[in-house]
Structures are given as structure tokens and as C-alpha cells.
Specification:
Blueprint lengths: L1 H5 L6 H8 L9 H8 L9 H11 L4 H11 L2 H14 L1 E4 L4 E4 L3 E5 L1 E3 L5 E6 L2 E2 L7 E5 L8 E9 L2 E4 L3 E6 L4 H4 L9 E5 L4 E4 L4 E4 L1 E4 L4 E6 L2 E2 L7 E4 L8 E8 L4 E3 L3 E6 L10 H4 L22 E8 L11 H15 L3 E6 L3 H13 L5 E9 L2 E4 L2 E4 L14 E2 H10 L4 E7 L23 E5 L19 H9 L6 H10 L37 E4 L21 H8 L7 E4 L5 E10 L2 E10 L4 E9 L25 H4 L8 E5 L10 E10 L6 E8 L12
Parallel strand pairs: 2-10, 12-20, 21-22, 21-23, 23-27, 27-28
Antiparallel strand pairs: 1-4, 3-7, 5-6, 5-8, 8-9, 8-10, 11-14, 13-17, 15-16, 15-18, 18-19, 18-20, 24-25, 25-26, 28-29, 30-31, 31-32, 32-34, 33-35, 35-36
Helix pairs in contact: 2-5, 3-4, 5-6, 12-13
């Protein structure tokens, strides 16, 4: 809408660029303005869209943009932006009306979500309450009010605001019959007897916080973490098993009854890393100071390299905002994740990440690497480049002329992995390695440690491109096409990658000419014999590996590693919400189920499992999905998995029941709070043409990768 209003020569995008450029960091060069103006030559190009993108890359805020539009004297554009901001401000916790006794303290709470920098202001009637600019308003009722006081909270961002609902506070004198009836004088109000205590735990421990209170009527409880209510935590004791770093924060308990409320003290809960395991070997191999046996004996066997963990992070970027779209990363990441799980790797597979999300995903990956981890594997498929010997992975939000500042440097990731002392560091980079002419900065990566445990498998050589095979929706990229044929082989990792590059004669190449012309030709076994990429793409292997280390090396037997904190955190980030049944007032029961396509892509399906006889037809549809998730509405509430637009539907739909409506939710890493949506039931009775509608709001917590709080 802003583009429609500003793509003109009057009070348009050029004037916005001039007004915004008053602040030096937002000033656009002549070349950038020329680039914006040339957008009119594109079929759907917009100079305003290009300008807004330039401002966004320089961290221009909504507040500053709104101020620029006001100085331009463009009320229509101001109204569009203000309405958009207002729609982003949502009251999550509304203040509640209360009846309290004279002399008690009253607390009203209003909490909202929206753009950064929300400002709160409380009002009593039409008058501002001086200094009341916090989400919580505390009122002293020592001086009784002559009539109920009405309070409301205004939440604003710049000149845009929204109001909470009204809450009224009625103060009753202690001597009034209505307030004294049923009260024990020593128990008037609420009193906390036991406060929660701060604690420091390791990952995998059990968190226990307790808050005990007395009152009449009996108190009720609601626990909060970082000022947000904890779902289902409505008992005096809060207990969370198998904690991870996602549970750390500030905790408090809201204690209340019909007449009063009080807050416990706020306590900090620190969650550190759990104990780390190391490689195991036969005791005789590592024992020291044993008495020598007088008779000769054979040399002890070599240590058995057994891993306490093998972890992998797979990232595939496809839907770039300013660059060519790719097709193969989805299928490549899925194929590798399936194979690596067969090798007992803990795998997280993510699609379409912006820079901040890639950084957070890598940081969480690094938390799981340490001396006890045998292998850490990072696979990336997407756009990339190589400058001055450093490789860069390009996120989906990289601007049209990106530099190293917009990308992730692989060598910096390696340096961080080395600090974690992982036994084997493997990088599989399925990306181009052409030089980026827009980037002439030499990044200061720092000196790498001298370790013999690094393997780089590049899909192509330096200053060359990596290609996809366009053979339908399920085609892999060329690198993974050959890699997946050898990945399960019990070979040293460098030998395995050599086979991908060069293959073995007679293992799986062209058929024997003696077999006759009617025999089908098998595909080449290695990249080197693929005719269409000969001279254009060839795998490059870099390694300083000295020992024989393979992806197939065994992990510690089950049971001895069950307390591993990293295992618990990794597993917790892959838990789907439990299937549940929703019961509607009309007598219809709807099953709500879930399936995972990737660690950040979830399928939700609805199915009517019970229906009264007087209802002729009914359907349960998914609505009110959070706007910040990557959800294409044309891929929601479909009658078959194949209609969701994913070529991988067949891989997860086998476990789903029939006669469902399917919806595909992408970008779960963007979740900043628990996932909530609405199930809309539409049904029609026999002999009636009109449909009736019932709705139920459902919250499923933070599913899959959202538990790692990457947003």
C-alpha cells in the first residue's frame, strides 16, 4: 500500500529518500537512487519497495519512518503505516476488575506484544496516573474511594496506540457487613508464607520452585517466566523436568483470590551446561602404573573410538528475497537427514533462514559440541561465495549487493567449533565458490588452532559454480545425488568423499557393453564421470585428518549416555505437540494431529471423528495462524497432502489418518511465544441450507525447533 502511494513524482519515494537522508546513515547515494528508479522497468518493480529495503538494511525503525512521512506532509501514507503498527500491538494480559478491603494493596496488570519500544500509560478515568508507565499498576487503598475507580492502560508505539479494556476497583471498609462476612480477621487478604528461591542447575536437572500462601478464600496461583505466564503452571509448586537453557530466566508467582492478589519475589534461574562425556576405550588401553606381566604378551589393541554423541546441523536456503530461487536444498537436506539418522546422528534440519536465524542456529549447534562429541557435521545448501580463501553462506534476507557483513563466514564457524574440542569437524558445503565482486573486505577470522580433525567437502572447486539437476520436483543437487550413494559406507570420511568424487570402477557405473544394447545404463557412480558437469563442477576435498574416523563409528551404548544434557536438549527440540481431541457444543469431536517435515516445518491436520446424526455436514478448518510465520494460505486446509505444495508429502503422510484437512506451517524458528491458532468448525443440519460456526482457540506451546528460542 505504501508503494502505491509513493511510486509517483510528487510527494513520493524521492522526497522520502531526501527527508530520511537528513540522518547521515540513511542517506542514499545517486547510484542507489538510480537503482530504485530503474525498478519501474521491471514487470512488478517498485522504486518505493527498493528504497524501503535500503532503509531496512540500515536499521531504520518504524518510528523514524513514520516521522519522515509526517514531515513530508503525506497523511495517507502516515495513516497506512500507523494502522499497520496499531495492528501489531496486541494486548496479551488484560487488567481485571477487583473488590478489595480498605488498606490493601491492589495490582493491575496489562502486558502487550508488538514492535520494540512499547510505552505504557495508566489512566484513572480520563486522568493520567502520574508515573504509572509500567505494565503493572500498584494502588494503595489506605484512603478509601467514594465510588469505584475505573482504570485503563494505553499502549503506544510512537503516535500509534491501543487501549486495554476497563477495570474497576471497589474498596470496601473493614466494618461493612458484606466485606466482613465469612472472613477470619487474622486471614484478611493474602499472605505468602514461603517465597521461591533462586537456583542454578545443569541441563537435564529438574527445576522445582515453590510459593505457599494463606488466605480466605483459598489462594490460587499462576507462575510467570520473564513476565509471561507459564502454561499449565497453576499450582503452589512449579516443577519442570529435564531442563535446558530455554528454561532459564526470571520467575515469579502471582497469588490471588476473589478479593486480593499479591506477587512473590522474582528469582533468577540459571541453567548451565551439563556434564560432558569423553571418548571411551578398553580399560587396559588407558590405565597407567600397572605392574608389567613377566611373560611376553601381544600389544594391546588400538583404542575403540566410541562417541558419546554425533550431531549434525543441516541448513537449506531456497526462497531468497532478492536472488534466484533454488529448488534442490529442500530435497537435499531431507535426504541427508534421513541417512545421518541411520548413522545415529542427532540431526536438526532447517529451511530458509535469515542471517539472525542462521547465527542463532549455529550458536545452538555449538552448545552441543564439546570434547565428548565425536563428530560435528555442518551441511549447507544455498547461495554462497568465496573471497580470499574464506567461504560465505548467504542467508535468504541478504540484499541484492551483499557483502560479508550480510553473510556467515564458514571459517569463523570452524574457529568456534575448534574451541568446543569436538573430535571430528566436518563441513559439507553445497554452494558456489565464485568470487563476490561487491565484497573487497578481508574478514579478520583469527588464527585457527592446529588440530588434525577437520574435513571440508566442497561441492565444487574454487571460483566455480555448483549446479542443480532439473529433473522434476524430487531432484537432488549434483553433490548430494552422489554423496547419498556412499554416505552409509563404513569408510574413513576422506575415503568416502574420494569415492563421491572419483568412484570405483565397476561398482556402479555404466553397464558392461557386453550386456547388450537392450540393457539399461546405470547412472554414473561419481561426480567425475557425469558428462553434463564435466569441466564445470568437481568435488574438492580438504582435510588434515590423520586417524581413521568414519561417520559409521559407533556411539556409546544406550543407557550410559541417557543423562547427557545435549541429548536431552536436542531431543526436546524435536518434540511434536501431542494429538488431541476438541469437543464442540454441537456434539462434534475433532481430532487435531501433527507431523514434522523438517525441524522448522510442521504439518497440522484436522479430522472429524464424531458427529451427531442430525448434522448433515461439518468441516474443521485451521484459522488465525500467527502472521509472522511463513504460511501460504493457499497451502492450508487442503484435502490431501499432495495439495500442500511440498514434494516431500509422501514421506510424512503415511502416518496420517485419511479424510483430513492438512495445513503446512513453515518458519517455526520465528516463534517468539507459544503457537496459538483457532479451529473453526462449520456445520449444517439436515434440511437447513445455512452453516453454523463454532470456534475454539488452541495453544500447542513451542513445537520442534521453536523450543530453542532462535527468534
Amino acid at each position: 500500500r505504501l508503494c502505491e502511494l509513493l511510486d509517483n513524482a510528487g510527494r513520493g519515494w524521492r522526497k522520502l529518500a531526501k527527508v530520511a537522508g537528513v540522518e547521515k546513515r540513511f542517506k542514499c547515494s545517486e547510484e542507489e537512487l538510480e537503482m530504485c528508479s530503474l525498478k519501474v522497468l521491471e514487470p512488478h518493480g517498485s522504486p518505493t519497495q527498493c528504497l524501503l529495503q535500503l532503509l531496512a538494511e540500515r536499521d531504520c525503525t518504524l518510528k523514524y519512518l513514520l516521522g519522515c512521512l509526517e514531515r513530508m506532509g503525506h497523511p495517507q501514507a502516515c495513516q497506512v503505516l500507523s494502522t499497520a503498527v496499531q495492528n501489531m500491538i496486541r494486548i496479551a494480559v488484560q487488567p481485571e476488575s477487583q473488590v478489595v478491603r480498605e488498606g490493601a494493596w491492589v495490582s493491575l496488570t496489562c502486558r502487550a506484544s508488538g514492535p520494540p519500544g512499547l510505552v505504557y500509560q495508566w489512566f484513572c478515568g480520563k486522568q493520567e496516573v502520574p508515573g504509572a508507565t509500567a505494565p503493572e499498576l500498584v494502588i494503595n487503598t489506605t484512603t478509601p474511594l467514594s465510588q469505584p475507580a475505573w482504570y485503563i492502560c494505553r499502549v503506544s508505539c510512537g503516535a500509534t496506540f491501543t487501549f486495554s479494556r476497563w477495570a474497576h476497583v471497589r474498596v470496601e471498609k473493614s466494618s461493612s457487613p458484606s466485606s466482613a462476612s465469612g472472613y477470619c480477621p487474622t486471614m484478611a487478604g493474602l499472605q505468602i508464607l514461603r517465597q521461591p528461591q533462586p537456583c542454578s542447575l545443569a541441563e537435564g536437572d529438574t527445576l522445582v520452585l515453590e510459593c505457599r500462601a494463606i488466605g480466605n478464600p483459598p489462594p490460587q496461583y499462576q507462575w510467570f517466566r520473564n513476565q509471561c505466564p507459564v502454561e499449565g503452571a497453576q499450582a503452589p509448586q512449579l516443577q519442570v523436568k529435564l531442563v535446558t537453557t530455554a528454561e532459564r530466566g526470571s520467575y515469579s508467582c502471582h497469588v490471588f483470590n476473589l478479593f486480593h492478589e499479591v506477587w512473590s519475589q522474582e528469582v533468577d534461574v540459571e541453567i548451565g551446561e551439563g556434564s560432558r562425556q569423553t571418548f571411551v576405550a578398553p580399560q587396559s588401553t588407558w590405565s597407567r602404573g600397572q605392574q608389567e606381566c613377566p611373560t611376553p604378551s601381544p600389544a594391546p589393541p588400538s583404542p575403540i573410538l566410541a562417541a558419546t554423541d554425533k550431531v549434525a546441523l543441516l541448513i537449506g536456503n531456497m526462497h531468497y528475497r532478492h536472488h534466484k530461487q533454488l529448488k534442490a536444498p529442500m530435497v537435499d537436506v531431507h535426504a541427508l537427514s534421513t541417512l545421518l539418522r541411520q548413522l545415529d546422528f542427532k540431526v536438526v534440519s532447517l529451511l530458509d533462514l535469515c542471517k539472525a536465524e542462521m547465527e542463532m542456529a549455529v550458536n545452538e549447534f555449538l552448545l552441543l559440541l564439546d570434547k565428548g562429541v565425536y563428530a560435528g557435521l555442518l551441511y549447507y545448501a544455498g547461495h554462497g561465495y568465496e573471497n580470499f580463501g574464506n567461504s560465505f553462506m548467504v542467508p535468504i534476507d541478504a540484499p541484492s549487493s551483499y557483502t560479508s557483513a550480510h553473510c556467515l563466514c564458514v571459517q569463523q564457524v570452524l574457529r568456534s567449533m575448534q574451541r568446543r574440542r569436538t573430535g571430528l569437524n566436518i563441513f559439507l558445503l553445497d554452494m558456489c565458490r565464485k568470487r563476490n565482486l561487491n565484497d573487497d573486505v578481508i574478514p579478520q577470522v583469527g588464527a585457527l588452532q592446529v588440530t588434525a580433525n577437520i574435513v571440508f567437502g566442497y561441492a565444487t572447486c574454487a571460483d566455480a559454480e555448483a549446479y542443480e539437476l532439473s529433473q522434476g520436483e524430487l531432484s537432488n543437487g549434483i553433490f548430494v545425488t552422489f554423496l547419498k550413494r556412499w554416505l552409509l559406507e563404513d569408510e574413513k570420511i576422506t575415503v568416502l568423499l574420494d569415492k563421491v568424487a572419483e568412484g570405483e570402477w565397476g561398482a556402479e557405473g555404466d553397464s558392461d557393453p557386453a550386456s547388450g544394447p537392450c540393457q539399461p545404463l546405470l547412472p554414473p557412480a561419481d561426480m567425475g564421470t557425469l558428462e553434463i558437469t564435466r569441466g564445470r563442477q568437481a568435488l574438492e576435498l580438504r582435510s588434515n585428518l590423520s586417524e581413521r574416523r568414519a561417520l559409521t563409528d559407533p556411539i556409546r551404548p544406550p543407557g550410559q549416555d541417557e543423562s547427557s544434557a545435549r541429548n536431552l536438549q536436542w531431543a526436546k527440540a524435536h518434540v511434536l505437540p501431542e494429538s488431541r481431541h476438541l469437543h464442540f457444543d454441537c456434539g462434534v469431536t475433532v481430532q487435531l494431529g501433527f507431523a514434522a517435515e523438517f525441524s522448522n516445518i510442521m504439518i497440522i491436520y484436522t479430522r472429524v471423528v464424531a458427529m451427531p446424526k442430525d448434522i448433515a455436514k461439518c468441516e474443521a478448518r485451521l484459522t488465525d495462524i500467527p502472521e509472522y510465520l511463513d504460511v501460504d494460505l493457499k497451502y492450508t486446509n487442503k484435502e490431501s497432502p499432495e495439495e500442500l505444495g511440498s514434494p516431500l508429502a509422501a514421506t510424512w503422510s503415511l502416518d496420517c489418518p485419511s479424510c483430513c484437512l492438512y495445513s503446512r506451517l513453515c518458519g517455526l524458528q520465528k516463534l517468539q511465544q507459544e503457537l496459538a491458532f483457532t479451529i473453526c468448525l462449520q456445520y449444517r443440519y439436515h434440511g437447513v441450507d445455512d452453516f453454523v460456526e463454532e470456534r475454539q482457540t488452541v495453544s500447542v506451546g513451542k513445537p520442534l525447533i521453536a523450543k530453542l528460542n532462535l527468534a
